[in-house]
Automatic annotation (TrEMBL):
It comes from the Eukaryota. The lineage of its organism: Eukaryota, Fungi, Dikarya, Ascomycota, Pezizomycotina. Signal peptide: none annotated. The keyword Repeat applies. It comes from Lophiotrema nucula. This is Ankyrin repeat-containing domain protein. One of its GO terms (cellular component) is cytoplasm. Keywords: ANK repeat, Repeat. SMART domains: ANK. Gene3D superfamilies: Ankyrin repeat-containing domain.
Length: 267
């Protein structure tokens, strides 16, 4: 993409756009117009180049000149992590805070799981939907963030109205061994026996649904298993295939986990 833009814009205009030199860019455009009265600056490409380097001043200029926000531009924005550009687009009214980008979802759905606290906070304060579902993976923003262990952002989402139970957050956090996140979710009222969220687009996912304890056992996360047992997880709870956590521990041949669960079962 960058090489195509650079070829289209030319070396000088590309450099001015990507380095945020507004006066240089305006001078280059005026030079083109002086030699060709019909010349029209390629605002769409200029704005995309600036977005790739998060040069919000150039993006603001383009918007004032009538440039339109497109899906490819928003793809570039989230791929490049262009927070300042996003702020300009939102505050100018060029895009809604919940603008949906195919595959990525909303900007919040990208910023939160990546652990970008400042960007997540900005989106939420501007009214972003904290309960958006990432359609490509069928995960809530909260679940995807918990899965990645972004504990500070998980707390931020919960503070801004993210629904905890039936979100899949505690199951995914346990599956990836994020003990501190699991503990936080339990402290905030998570259902310790939730068995995750079914994916209506892929029935195969349902076959592997189970509780946080099932997933922690399956992943070999002994510290998370111990935490869940201490917090009251039911060792006899069955997953969708009718297996208990102990059954899973035996299946994956984890003697330490088997012993831990058996000892807890006889208490």
């Amino acid at each position: 993409m960058e090489s195509q833009l650079k070829t289209e814009l030319g070396e000088d205009l590309w450099r001015a756009c990507t380095e945020g030199h507004l006066e240089d860019m305006e001078f280059i455009i005026s030079q083109h117009k002086s030699t060709d009265s019909s010349y029209k600056p390629p605002l769409s490409s200029v704005m995309k180049a600036a977005t790739l380097r998060d040069k919000a001043n150039i993006v603001s200029y383009c918007l004032k000149q009538g440039a339109i926000v497109t899906e490819p531009l928003m793809n570039s924005l989230v791929s490049a992590g262009s927070f300042q550009t996003h702020k300009v687009l939102v505050e100018s009214g060029a895009v809604d805070i919940d603008y949906y980008i195919p595959w990525f979802g909303t900007v919040l759905a990208v910023a939160a799981p990546a652990g970008n606290y400042e960007w997540t906070e900005y989106c939420l304060e501007k009214g972003a939907n904290a309960n958006f579902d990432r359609v490509d993976e069928y995960k809530t923003v909260l679940a995807a963030t918990a899965e990645n262990g972004r504990i500070d952002v998980v707390g931020l989402l919960l503070d801004h109205g993210a629904t905890l139970n039936s979100s899949g957050a505690i199951v995914l956090a346990a599956e990836t061994g994020e003990k501190e996140v699991v503990s936080l979710l339990l402290d905030r009222g998570a259902d310790i026996h939730e068995i995750g969220v079914a994916d209506p687009t892929d029935p195969r996912v349902t076959e592997y649904m189970g509780s946080a304890l099932h997933k922690a056992v399956e992943g070999g996360h002994k510290d998370v298993v111990e935490l869940l047992l201490e917090r009251g997880a039911d060792v006899n709870l069955q997953d969708v295939k009718g297996r208990t956590p102990l059954d899973l521990a035996k299946e994956v041949k984890m003697p330490d986990m088997v012993g831990l669960l058996e000892n807890h079962s006889v208490r």
